[in-house]
Amino acid sequence: MDLDHTRTWFVDRDGLSLLNQREIHFNQRYREQIGREADRDGKYEFSHKWPTDPANAEIGAIIRESDDGKWVAGIVWDDFLSAQGHNPWACMHLSVRVGALEPAESVTRRGRIYLFEGNSEDCLDRCRAFLKR
Question: Could you say which of 64, 66, 113, 117 is the most buried, measured as most Cβ atoms within 10 Å of its Cβ?
Answer without folding.
Answer: 64
